[in-house]
Specification:
- The complex is a heterodimer of chains A (about 300) and B (about 1100).
- Chain A is an alpha/beta fold and about 300 residues long.
- Chain A has 10 helices and 6 strands; from the N terminus they run H-E-H-H-H-H-H-E-E-E-H-H-E-E-H-H.
- In chain A, helix 2 crosses helix 3 and helix 8 packs across helix 9.
- Chain A is globular, with a radius of gyration of 24 Å.
- In chain B, the strands form 9 sheets. Chain B has a 7-stranded mixed β-sheet, sandwiched between helices.
- The longest helix of chain B is centred in the first third of the chain and has 51 residues.
- The radius of gyration of chain B is 41 Å and the shape is globular.
- The chains are: A alpha/beta (about 300), B alpha/beta (about 1100).
Chain lengths: ~300, ~1100
């Protein structure tokens, strides 16, 4: 065997032939004309947490493809539950049938059919869904008794912030809006994590408040402007507590403050990005980093520059 | 030799005594491996049969190391001088050797010649070999294979899905699944099932004790004191009935109290007022008495003033509180029982599915190896039969690292040794059977793999008793003298562990160092805090990134700067009397986390040699994601985001602005299309397009390895990736290529399936870090077992014990009559006996956490540096850093290092350096030769060499009626022989030698004389004399490339002269042509290619070619002027 250290040294030389380059964190400053003038409220959270992800998705128009053989994940479960509840409420907007739970379960059966071939999904999601259904009917009975009636399910709406250099429009698809004795309730169903009151207050969870703003402006189709008196997250896990009502505000005053703060905050954000030297930075504030893996961290080359002095 | 050392060596010698069974408790660094090798050597020296010695080690690496040490020693003995051998034997035996030196010399051959060699192996390898020899007896498929972790995980998932599909018809399983689905999602279920399958032996113990799942459930309920049939609903229904008459007035008292009193009072009143809703609202009601989800009762049920005024009412409420707390406790116990029962039902089903899958595919997992061997050995007569077939039995068993042996592994050892204790073995001293166990409970750190730290003590007692029963005894030896750690380190270890329990019985052997007078030091660096994050409003987007360097990073940088400082300044390692080298340094962490990667990067950036990560998940490395993006793009160019990532990667290298220009506002077009149209007007983009097209084209026709290799080398992507991502990217690249190669070996080599395979498994690369070369090593404490470093840096000493995930299952196997397992699901359900068991488990985990520190500290020879990071204001009490700092506090001196302050405990060098080495001159790194940067020429087309003398076209064959002469061929062949050999002989001998040869072949003397004359006529021909003269070569092989073809030939005669080269080829079997024009073209072409080959070698010389027809013989000069030089 030839023992010759030269070859290893040469190989190393080859690797290091080019000068070491430093990867800078991306900070694109696209021209103002390229920047979005309308966004769905769900994108606002991305904007806050990871502006570069918003840039890649909305300005570069790059979206991740769903892998063909991916296991259905949390998002699928969420969308099934949403669909079933939408179907159910659409048929029974006013009074509930006596066998509401059975009706709900029948709708669920149809929606779950496409997962027939995935044993783990059927084995785990289906029992969870049944628990959700049971809880939901009980909670719904109580809610209707309090005088709430659903007036919109999965309805789209928009509101425009005027008086800036450019107008800015936010759009939303509200899971559900109820009308009660004193005003509207904006409701969001969550099958996963629910934002805390603190997150909503600070602006990190702006979905409900901005949807409420749209409602108060009369921005939802066929729904007149009315004060919002309730902001509510409904957590549907199907676990030991199959569902929880997590109220964010339950009167006009509290809701009003939260909504006003969110609109003011959003306006500040919009104004900042209406300046040409405002960059779309990648996760500029680590404290707002979520555990969710971003589709855009490879494009942003996060690993090449994070943690560098 | 000092007294201390004499004692230490004495203990070693006693431990190696081959006549007795010995149990060795060995502190770290006291020469455990040394004792083990000595003992095996002495066993062999006292005539033990190599095949009857079994030495069990913890890892394959340890087994290999032991075998190497042994064969090195025995190999040296075989050739040593008598004096040297005597001296070596005296050291080994502690006294002069009286036997025959020849015997010692022969040991090497004895071991070599023994079939299968010495049995030095891991217990898994040993069990595997047993099962392979006795598959029928063990009830196994004879072709079973052991599966790797990945296959095992895949098989478990498959079993899970089969269970869930097949179980649809079995109501028991459906019920259990429904129950569990309410508690965890499918990932949570998979996790708990994995934990369960990792504890299979325990699970089986449970089944053996109880028989059925139902019986385990009953035992569980008994332990938890739950009446049979009790369910959550029945308990709450029972709790509905209360002492209403007393409770209502008490609640009304509350309504007059403070705000809190009133709130609680209202809950109680509401509950009392609505008897029909009491079950539904029980939870709210319980909330009046208990503080939080853990169900702790409130300290008091009334505010102080009110309670003083109404002591009676307070008393009533307190009684109700007790009653409710008890009911809630029962509810939790029921939940716990139901969850556990459901889990056991599914686990039973899962384990059946898994076993049947394994059986069908002939696979075994690591647990199977142990458990199946154990069954085999425990069967009636099993051990005897197996041992008898194994070279007639085992006489000596040695167990290394005994503290990390699991209960089942001990059972295997016990079964193997059972013969030893049946009497007879110990009494006959000529045929002694011995057991040797060496370990250190203080170093037991593998409980997550089933190690049983307390088993070490337990088994010692068992074996001691067994030996006593047959009139023998177990010699117990403590090794306390460290040959590794210098005094300061030993002192620190003793100080830290004087106050900390490491083992079950808390016994601790004080350490001593054999290295007095050697410089040593322990330094504490202040831990790094997480930098405060400003609490600005999410809405106020920042213009700049906030410096967010993680504390891990800052620790890694201080370490790297320190090491760089040592190397640059030539810091002296006193005990070796030379400067510090990277290979002296060991950086240890409890968990790899982000830190290991950061540290490796920081060191590489500073040009300090560092061995790569001992573990990494390839697909998470940015450089690998870049490569995979290239492959993904080639397979699916429509994937815009992946293409964008590839464009920005160093492989293509577009800037953010260039990407914007291509990607923004591209209408409905895909990015690839947009890039191609933009490439028409932009040179950079055009280059990118060309490159991408080449990548796509390669993906169509190349297997994975070639695809990536081509991209990295031919496209030079490797250099660019390393320039942009840093030198630490080279390591994952090489691993990745290795993976691609091995994938191609085992599977259909398509790029698509390779990518899929990569993504499906997390492809974690694991590597053994052996004794370092010249590199800094970064590894976990677990990985450093058995290793040492002159300088050890303990980098994450502030990490808390709880940083890991807690086991979900709580086992209660102490009670052998009624063993149990609990699955609490949530902390709140850990009631009564479960909480007690959990506390015991926590305690054991805490001890293991400290043992890990013991292992970490004792890796150091001369210097130990300790640092870490934490998230809070201060590091947590009880963390490693705290344990060390508080134990050494009064003795630490404040010092300032170039990288900041530190606290130090040190002892100077007072003795002679005990590790002085010759300092070899640093080898010069050769510079890169020019050819390394030019692409290698393309390979010649037909890679198989042509052999020119195999003519392309046959010349006409001699007709059967043409001058028929049967000896013609014989004549040609023999003349060929003469032409070949005669020229090398002295001229006066040629004739006689030729005559001898020809007459031996039956040629008549007359005929022979005529042939010889003709042959010599040629050899001595003036034109050819140089060809057959001095320095000429017969049958010269030559290989080369002529016109893109590889030619391999043998030139019959060749001579290289000053100005020319002469070559000749002999032709035997044809009638010689009459003149030069009659020479077949094939021969001309052949000679032409020879000429070119030779010309390639000697471009400056003239080439002369000849053909010699042996049939004549006669010769023809092919080239002009040939022979006239």
């Amino acid at each position: 065997l030839i023992q010759d250290d030269r070859h290893l040294a040469w190989a190393e030389h080859l690797d290091l032939r080019l000068k070491r380059q430093k990867t800078e964190p991306p900070a694109p400053r696209p021209p103002l004309t390229a920047r979005p003038t309308e966004l769905p409220v769900t994108a606002v959270e991305t904007w806050i947490r990871d502006p570069y992800a918003l840039y890649a998705e909305r300005i570069l128009n790059l979206r991740a493809l769903e892998p063909i053989d991916a296991d259905p994940g949390a998002a699928d479960r969420g969308s099934i539950v949403h669909d079933v509840l939408e179907d159910f409420i659409a048929v029974h907007p006013d009074t509930l049938p006596d066998d509401a739970e059975r009706v709900l379960i029948d709708i669920g059966k149809r929606r779950f059919e496409r997962f027939e071939t995935r044993p783990a999904v059927r084995a785990f999601w289906w029992p969870r869904f049944r628990r959700v259904a049971k809880w939901f009917v009980e909670a719904e009975v109580e809610r209707r008794a309090e005088g709430w009636r659903p007036v919109a399910m999965e309805k789209t709406g928009a509101a425009t912030i005027k008086g800036l250099v450019h107008d800015f429009t936010i759009k939303a698809k509200a899971d559900r809006i109820d009308r009660g004795p004193d005003g509207l309730a904006v409701i969001d169903y969550k099958t996963g994590q629910v934002p805390s009151l603190k997150q909503v207050e600070s602006g990190l969870g702006p979905q409900l408040t901005l949807e409420a703003h749209i409602a108060e402006q009369g921005g939802f189709d066929g729904l007149d402007a009315e004060p919002v008196t309730e902001l509510l997250y409904v957590k549907l896990s199907g676990g030991r507590e199959p569902g929880t009502l997590q109220g964010i505000a339950d009167n006009e005053k509290d809701a009003g403050i939260l909504i006003a703060e969110a609109v003011a905050g959003l306006t500040r954000l919009v104004v900042r990005y209406q300046s040409a030297d405002m960059p779309y930075l990648a996760i500029p504030r680590v404290q707002f980093l979520t555990n969710r893996r971003s589709d855009y961290d490879h494009l942003a080359r996060v690993k090449a520059w994070e943690d560098e002095a | 030799v000092s007294e201390v050392e004499r004692k230490g060596v004495g203990a070693q010698v006693a431990a190696a005594d081959p006549k007795s069974s010995v149990w060795v408790g060995a502190n770290a660094g006291t020469g455990k491996t040394h004792v083990l090798t000595d003992r095996i050597t002495r066993l062999l020296l006292s005539d033990a049969k190599p095949g009857r010695v079994l030495c069990l080690t913890f890892t394959k690496a340890a087994a290999a190391e032991m075998a190497t040490r042994l064969s090195e020693r025995l190999g040296a003995w075989a050739v040593a001088t008598d004096a040297d051998l005597q001296a070596a034997l005296r050291d080994l035996l502690g006294k002069p050797y009286e036997g025959d030196l020849k015997r010692a010399r022969r040991l090497f051959a004895t071991c070599l010649e023994f079939p299968g060699g010495l049995k030095i192996q891991t217990i898994h390898a040993f069990c595997q070999s047993i099962l392979a020899r006795f598959p029928l007896e063990a009830g196994l498929n004879p072709n079973q294979r052991v599966m790797d972790d990945r296959t095992r995980a895949e098989l478990l998932l498959e079993a899970r899905d089969r269970l869930l599909v097949g179980g649809g018809n079995e109501s028991r399983l459906v019920e259990a699944t429904d129950k569990i689905a309410a508690l965890v999602d499918e990932e949570g279920f998979t996790r708990v099932m994995e934990e369960l399958s990792g504890n299979r032996a325990k699970f089986e113990t449970l089944h053996r004790a109880h028989g059925t799942t139902a019986a385990i459930g009953a035992a569980l309920r008994k332990k938890l004191e739950i009446p049979t049939g009790a369910r959550e609903e029945t308990i709450i229904a029972d709790a509905r009935r209360c002492d209403e008459a007393a409770l209502r007035p008490a609640a009304e008292v509350l309504l007059d109290g403070s705000k809190t009193d009133r709130r609680i009072g209202q809950i109680v009143v509401d509950w009392l007022d609505n008897p029909e809703a009491r079950i539904r609202t029980f939870r709210d009601y319980a909330g009046a008495y208990l503080v939080n989800d853990l169900g702790k009762p409130r300290d008091k049920m009334m505010t102080k003033g009110l309670a003083e005024k109404h002591p009676g009412a307070h008393e009533v409420l307190k009684r109700e509180q007790d009653r409710i707390a008890a009911a809630v406790e029962r509810v939790r116990a029921v939940r716990l029982a139901e969850a556990t029962e459901a889990l056991l039902v599914l686990a039973g089903g899962l384990s059946e599915c898994y076993s049947s899958l394994k059986r069908r595919r002939g696979l075994l997992d690591y647990d199977d190896l142990i458990l199946a061997t154990l069954d085999l050995l425990r069967a009636e007569g099993g051990a005897n039969w197996v041992l008898y077939k194994l070279d007639g039995g085992l006489d000596h068993i040695l167990v290394d690292e005994a503290q990390d042996t699991s209960a089942e592994q001990w059972a295997v050892v016990e079964a193997l040794a059972s013969e030893f204790f049946s009497g007879g073995g110990g009494t006959n001293k000529n045929h002694a059977r011995t057991l040797f166990v060496v370990g250190d409970e203080k170093q037991s750190i593998y409980s997550f793999q089933g190690a049983d730290p307390e088993g070490f003590e337990r088994m010692r007692k068992i074996f001691a008793r067994r030996l006593r029963d047959i009139g023998d005894r177990l010699v117990e030896v403590e090794l306390a003298l460290s040959f590794r750690s210098a005094p300061t380190i030993v002192r620190a270890v003793d100080a830290v562990f004087a106050r900390t329990k490491l083992t079950g019985d808390g016994r601790s052997v004080p350490h001593r160092s054999n290295r007095d007078g050697q410089a040593s030091m322990l330094e504490l660096w202040p831990p790094v805090k997480k930098s405060d994050t400003p609490s600005d409003s999410p809405w106020d987007a920042p213009l700049d990134r906030i410096d967010s360097r993680s504390p891990e990073s800052r620790v890694a940088e201080r370490i790297a700067d320190t090491i760089k400082g040592w190397i640059d300044d030539g810091e002296t390692l006193d005990s070796r009397a030379r400067p510090v080298r990277p290979g002296d340094i060991l950086i240890l962490v409890r968990k790899r986390g982000q830190f290991a990667a950061r540290a490796i990067r920081a060191l590489k950036e500073r040009n300090i040699p560092v061995s790569g990560a001992d573990r990494m998940v390839l697909t998470e490395q940015l450089v690998i994601r870049d490569l995979m993006a290239a492959a993904d793009f080639a397979l699916l160019p429509e994937d815009d985001l992946t293409l964008a990532a590839l464009l920005k990667s160093p492989i293509v290298g577009l800037t953010e602005d260039q990407l914007f220009a291509v990607a923004h506002d591209r209408g409905g077009n895909g990015l690839w299309r947009s890039l191609r149209s933009a490439a028409r007007t932009d040179a950079t983009l055009a280059a990118a397009e060309t490159q991408l097209k080449a990548i796509m084209a390669r993906a169509d026709r190349m297997p994975p390895y070639e695809f990536f290799e081509e991209l990295l080398v031919a496209d030079r992507a490797r250099e660019r990736l390393i320039a942009w991502l840093g030198p630490d990217a080279a390591d994952p690249l090489d691993e990745f290529l290795g993976l691609a190669l091995s994938f191609e070996r085992d599977r259909a080599p398509s790029l698509q399936s390779f990518l899929h395979w990569l993504r499906a498994g997390s492809s974690e690369i694991k590597r053994d870090m052996e004794r370092g070369g010249g590199e800094v090593r970064v590894m976990t404490v677990h990985g450093s077992k058995g290793l040492q470093g002159d300088i050890v840096i303990l980098a994450d000493a502030c990490r808390e014990r709880r940083a890991g995930t807690k086991p979900q299952l709580v086992w209660d196997l102490e009670d052998a009559e009624n063993p149990c397992v609990y699955w609490p699901v949530a902390r709140e359900n850990e009631v009564g006996p479960v909480a007690e068991r959990r506390a015991v488990m926590d305690d054991m985990a805490e001890r293991e956490y400290r043992r890990l520190l013991y292992v970490a500290m004792t890796r150091a020879r001369d210097r130990l540096y300790v640092t870490g990071w934490h998230g809070g204001e201060n590091y947590k009490a009880g963390c490693w850093y705290d344990l060390i700092a508080s134990a050494l506090e009064p003795n630490l001196a404040d010092v300032e290092t170039p990288q900041g302050p530190a606290r130090r405990l040190a002892a100077p060098q007072t003795g002679k350096p005990d590790g002085a080495e010759n300092i070899g001159a640093a080898s010069e790194i050769p510079s890169l030769p020019a050819w390394a940067l030019t692409p290698a020429p393309a390979e010649p087309k037909p890679a198989i060499p042509l052999i020119p003398s195999t003519p392309e076209k046959e010349p006409p064959i001699l007709g059967p009626f043409d001058r028929d002469d049967p000896s013609r061929f014989k004549r040609g062949r023999l003349i060929h022989r003469l032409l070949q050999s005669l020229p090398d002989m002295a001229m006066e001998l040629q004739e006689e030698a030729a005559l001898r040869l020809l007459s031996a072949h039956g040629v008549s003397t007359t005929e022979a004389r005529s042939w010889i004359a003709e042959t010599l006529g040629i050899i001595r021909h003036p034109d050819l004399s140089a060809l057959f003269g001095r320095g000429s070569l017969a049958e010269a092989p030559i290989v080369g490339i002529v016109e893109d073809r590889v030619i391999s030939a043998r030139i019959d005669r060749l001579v290289v002269l000053d100005d020319r080269v002469m070559i000749v080829d002999y032709k035997t079997n044809r009638p010689p042509p009459r003149d030069i024009d009659d020479i077949p073209s094939v021969y001309r072409r052949q000679m032409e290619s020879y000429r070119k080959l030779v010309h390639g070698l000697y471009p400056d010389k003239r080439i002369e070619e000849f053909l010699i027809w042996t049939d004549g013989p006669r010769f023809v000069a092919l080239s002009e002027n040939a022979g006239r030089g």
